[in-house]
Structure formats: structure tokens, C-alpha cells
Specification:
The complex is a heterodimer of chains A (about 230) and B (about 210). With about 230 residues, chain A is an all-alpha fold. Chain A has nine helices and two strands. Chain A has a two-stranded antiparallel sheet with strand order 1-2. In chain A, helix 3 crosses helix 4, helix 3 packs parallel to helix 6 and helix 7 packs across helix 9. The two termini of chain A are about 40 Å apart. Chain B contains four helices and six strands. Chain B is globular, with a radius of gyration of 22 Å. The chains are: A mainly alpha (about 230), B alpha+beta (about 210). Chains A and B meet through helix 4 of A and helix 1 of B. Chain B: Belongs to the RnfG family.
């Protein structure tokens, strides 16, 4: 069982990461990642919706007929998004203003219905919740990485405007990393999002390939040793 | 009834019903809190542009008007009036620059009846971060350059960004955003100047 959870964690965070590997939810991913703060806000909101929808979908999986499962999942997800939007509007008003249109757009994040269909509809609640948590964290991590790259290149800061998300104390989080006269404006514009995303995916693939090569070398060595003892 | 299609349809309707009831409940529970947040936000903004006036008094003396050619929006916008000894000494106008770089820019401007801008703030915008978002006070104090600027016939041409021969700085790499904001504030000031009857209209905003 713990093996299973470990597998789920690596899948969500790395090998089947919704942002880098499944390439799901690119619309909000690319649109809001111009600062770390926005990325964090959308990441948390997505994580909450994913967790809620996976839990509910898993709980009702035995009562839902196959033919109408998709509309039911969509209803569940849309309800969660609306609930999150209302709650954010009520309790974190500044963040609600900052994220604006991207909260309702979480509905269209295919990563969420993807997990509902591929995992939660076939598995018990606990693993489904864990899967949602890992997928959500994986998605948030990609959002944060993209946000950090773009904010750093585009305006030379990190955590700019974090106080809108976390409260006045977070103003102290703002770091002015580079103080240049001219910033790399492209990073802040949509093309920069695509380029940075491409680089991130390339980086992940490079790491995977290096790992694979190392493993091949290792197995080759052990095999050599095995034959050695037999001879 | 035993037909699978009608059974599925009923089930789907049931799920929809449950979802709607839960959402209705949440909406009912959060509505007062959301209204409170909106009001607090509006009060804070009013205080920000016109610190001398009592916010509640402004909220009570408010008119809602639609003037797309002046205020840039096809839907009603609010004008708050600040009276001292019966006469209006300042208006706080919600106005919109329809021609921002990416969409409309909503502004709030405090103006005296003769067309002197007291203060201007950006309410919402979708301008490019790092370029056009210097219209936020959080990013730059550019909005302060409108304080105590008056519009009159003689200086209309100077109400423009420097690139267009005016008095207002543009931003490096972004001219469209400040141009839109300068024009919107200019239009608003002219609107107030040329429509003195705004002071007399009965207050007609919905209660806050």
C-alpha cells in the first residue's frame, strides 16, 4: 500500500506531472504565471478544487452509471469551482480581485476532469485524495517555477504583490533580485510563457534521460559482474 | 420508467439539484460577507481619493449615470458628491478608459466642479505586468501626477503624454496605457466641467 502511495507521489510530482508531462490546464498555467504570487494563488485554488472533486467523484463512483459519468463529473467540478470562487470573494477579496477571470476558468482545467476520470472514478477515497494532493502540488510546482522565471526575467523581483495573497506581513517576502534598467519584457508577455514552458519541459526531459543513461550503465555493470562470478 | 435513458436523465437531474442546492446555501451564507467586502473596498477607495470627506456621506449622495462618450462605458457608472454647506465641492467619478492596451481600464477620479483633478486611482485593469501596470499606485507613483491638474480650454493640448506633445510621462516601452488613462481623465474632467447639473440630480444609487 505504501508502495502505491509512493508511486502516486512520483507520478503527480514528476513522471506524470499534469503541467510538464500531461500538458493539461495550459490555459491558466500560461496566462497567470507572470508573477510568483499569481502562480501561488491559482495553484492553491486549483489544488483545493482538485482535492474536493476527486473526493466526491471517488465517493459516488459506485452509483454513477458509466454513460452519464462525464456530465456528472463536470457538474461536481463546476460546483466546487463556484464554491471556491464565492468563498474567495468573501474571505480573500484582494486575491479574488487579483486572480479575476482565472478562478472560473479552473473549470476548464482538463487536469481536474482528467484525474476524476482516470483515477478517482476507479479508486477509493483515500488514494484519490492523495492523488489529487500530489497532482495539485505538481501543478502548483510548475506554476511556481514558471512564475519565478518570468517574474525574475521580466521585472527582476520575486513575490511582488504577495501581500494581496497572504496579508500585509507578506510584503516582507518581496525580493528585488536584479535591479537592471531594462528587463526582458518578452518574459512577461504570453510568448515568454510558452518559451519558458518549453525550456522547463526540455529540462525535465534532460534530467530523465540522464537518469536513464545512468541506470543503463548500472545494469550493464551488474550484469558484467554476474557473468564474471559464473565464469 | 425502467428505460435506462429516463433513469439516467432523472439521476442527472438529481445530481444537478443537489449541486444547485449546495451552491445556493453557500451563496446565501457568503452574500452578506461579500457585500461587506465590496463596501469596505469602495469605502477605502473613496477615502483614498478624497480623504477630507466622510465616506458614508459620499455613499449616500451618489448618482448613477450612463455617459459612454464621456465616461467610456455603456453601463451605468457612479458619481459620488461631496457637499460642504450645501454646495458640491468635489465629485468622485467612476470612469473608464476603453482603449487600454489589453481591454478597459477602470479608474476613480476625484474632481472639483471647475475641473481640477484632486486625485486619480486605477480600480481594475489587465495591462502588461512590468510595463503598463505602472498605473497602479503599488508599482509607481505615476497616478500622483494628476493631482491638482486643471483642464481648461487653453491647456487641452497639454493633457497628453509627452510623446504626443503633452505634460504627462509615458512609460518606457508602453505608451498606449498612459495615453488611454490621460485621455480618460481629461474626458472626465471636461464632463464634470460642462455638466454643472450633475450637482442637482437627485441621488439615485441603490443603497450600499
Amino acid at each position: 500500500m505504501s508502495q502505491n502511495y509512493k508511486e502516486l507521489a512520483t507520478q503527480g510530482l514528476w513522471s506524470n506531472n499534469p503541467g510538464l508531462v500531461q500538458l493539461l490546464g495550459l490555459c491558466p498555467l500560461l496566462a497567470v504565471t507572470n508573477t510568483v504570487t499569481n502562480a501561488l494563488g491559482l495553484g492553491i485554488a486549483t489544488l483545493l478544487v482538485l482535492l474536493g472533486s476527486n473526493l466526491v467523484v471517488s465517493a459516488i463512483r459506485n452509483w454513477v452509471p458509466r454513460e452519464i459519468r462525464i456530465p456528472i463529473f463536470v457538474l461536481v467540478i463546476a460546483s466546487f469551482v463556484t464554491a471556491v470562487e464565492l468563498l474567495m470573494n468573501a474571505f480573500t477579496y484582494n486575491l479574488y480581485l487579483a486572480l479575476g477571470i482565472f478562478i472560473p476558468l479552473i473549470v476548464t482545467n482538463c487536469a481536474i476532469i482528467g484525474r476524476a476520470e482516470a483515477f478517482a472514478s476507479k479508486n477509493p477515497m483515500l488514494p484519490s485524495a492523495f492523488d489529487a494532493l500530489m497532482m495539485g502540488l505538481g501543478f502548483t510546482a510548475v506554476l511556481l517555477a514558471l512564475g519565478a522565471i518570468r517574474e525574475l526575467l521580466g521585472q527582476g523581483t520575486l513575490f511582488d504583490g504577495a501581500d494581496a495573497l497572504l496579508g500585509p506581513w507578506a510584503q516582507a517576502l518581496r525580493v528585488e533580485v536584479l535591479a537592471l534598467d531594462h528587463y526582458f519584457i518578452v518574459a512577461l508577455l504570453p510568448p515568454g510563457a510558452f518559451i519558458a514552458m518549453g525550456l522547463l519541459i526540455a529540462g525535465k526531459n534532460a534530467i530523465d534521460q540522464r537518469k536513464q543513461r545512468k541506470q543503463q550503465v548500472k545494469t550493464a555493470i551488474t550484469r558484467a559482474r554476474v557473468t564474471g562470478t559464473i565464469v | 420508467m425502467n428505460h435506462p435513458i429516463s433513469k439516467n436523465a432523472l439521476l442527472l437531474a438529481l445530481v444537478a439539484l443537489i449541486c444547485v442546492s449546495i451552491l445556493t446555501l453557500i451563496q446565501q451564507l457568503t452574500a452578506p460577507r461579500i457585500a461587506e467586502q465590496r463596501l469596505a473596498n469602495r469605502m477605502a477607495l473613496l477615502h483614498d481619493v478624497l480623504p477630507a470627506a466622510a465616506e458614508q456621506q459620499l455613499l449616500d449622495d451618489c448618482i448613477s449615470i450612463t455617459a459612454p462618450e464621456w465616461l467610456g462605458r455603456n453601463s451605468p457608472q457612479l458619481i459620488f458628491r461631496w457637499r460642504q454647506q450645501g454646495a458640491v465641492s468635489a465629485f468622485v467619478v467612476e470612469t473608464t478608459a476603453p482603449d487600454g492596451y489589453s481591454g478597459t481600464i477602470d479608474l476613480m477620479v476625484a474632481i472639483t466642479p471647475d475641473g481640477t483633478v484632486l486625485a486619480a486611482r486605477t480600480l481594475t485593469h489587465q495591462e502588461t505586468p512590468g510595463l503598463g501596470d505602472k498605473i497602479e499606485l503599488r508599482k509607481s507613483d505615476w497616478m500622483h501626477s494628476f493631482a491638482n491638474q486643471t483642464v481648461h480650454e487653453a491647456n487641452l493640448r497639454r493633457w497628453a503624454v509627452r510623446k504626443d506633445g503633452g505634460d504627462f510621462d509615458q512609460f518606457t516601452g508602453a505608451t498606449i496605457t498612459p495615453r488611454a488613462v490621460v485621455n480618460a481623465i481629461k474626458r472626465t474632467a471636461l464632463f464634470i466641467q460642462q455638466h454643472p447639473e450633475l450637482a442637482e440630480q437627485p441621488a439615485n444609487c441603490e443603497a450600499f
